UniProtKB/TrEMBL annotation:
<dbReference type="GO" id="GO:0016491">
    <property type="term" value="F:oxidoreductase activity"/>
</dbReference>
<feature type="domain" description="Nitroreductase">
    <location>
        <begin position="7"/>
        <end position="167"/>
    </location>
</feature>
<protein>
    <submittedName>
        <fullName>Nitroreductase</fullName>
    </submittedName>
</protein>
<dbReference type="Pfam" id="PF00881">
    <property type="entry name" value="Nitroreductase"/>
</dbReference>
<dbReference type="InterPro" id="IPR029479">
    <property type="entry name" value="Nitroreductase"/>
</dbReference>
<dbReference type="InterPro" id="IPR050627">
    <property type="entry name" value="Nitroreductase/BluB"/>
</dbReference>
<dbReference type="InterPro" id="IPR000415">
    <property type="entry name" value="Nitroreductase-like"/>
</dbReference>
Length: 187
């Protein structure tokens, strides 16, 4: 598959086959992520890999509880309230792998660099027949002091991207996008 096919066919996947992603594939995806452009050569990324489905369910339940308890602070989450109240809803969509990307805040460019690494991983995943989805629901939990302590993430690292990875249950059609807005200078 060439890069144009990867870009044109990439979709956010939310239904996964019950099949583990081999550890060597995850390692290769992380390696490809670190080939991303990086401001000042800082390479500020760090990674956590979670493949324990029970741990992912625990994190999902904790995240759902947090959002529901703080709904008034996050009006944009109201649209998801019924999902979050549903005991069977898993914010990681039962994916077999959660890859969390953190950035070292000592680099001014950590958000950009770590996002570029996530983009590389999302595209490279297609080469392995894998699907991905950036899971915003995990933002609070995966950046909490308790979570970072459990996974030995230094305090100077901040969450950038919780990314689920797995084999899609079905192949999805290419995404539809609005035409790009292109702004120009006024005379």
């Amino acid at each position: 598959m060439n890069v144009l096919e990867c870009i044109n066919g990439r979709r956010s996947v939310r239904k996964f086959a019950a099949k583990a992603v081999p550890p060597e594939v995850i390692d290769e995806l992380i390696s490809l992520g670190t080939k991303a452009a990086t401001g000042s050569g800082n390479q500020p990324w760090g990674f956590v890999v979670i493949t324990d489905l029970q741990e992912m369910k625990r994190i999902s339940d904790e995240a759902k509880s947090h959002w529901l308890a703080n709904m008034e602070k996050y009006p944009y989450m109201q649209q998801y309230k019924n999902w979050l109240k549903d005991d069977s809803f898993n914010i990681f969509y039962n994916a077999p792998c959660l890859l969390i990307i953190y950035g070292n805040t000592e680099s001014h460019w950590y958000v950009y660099d770590s996002t570029l690494a996530a983009g590389n991983i999302m595209l490279a995943s297609r080469e392995y027949g894998l699907g991905t989805c950036w899971v915003g629901f995990a933002e609070h939990i995966c950046d909490s002091d308790l979570f970072k302590s459990k996974y030995n993430i230094p305090a100077k690292y901040k969450l950038v991207c919780p990314l689920i990875i797995g084999y899609p249950e079905t192949e999805l059609p290419p995404p539809k996008r609005k035409p790009a807005l292109i702004f120009t200078a006024t005379s």
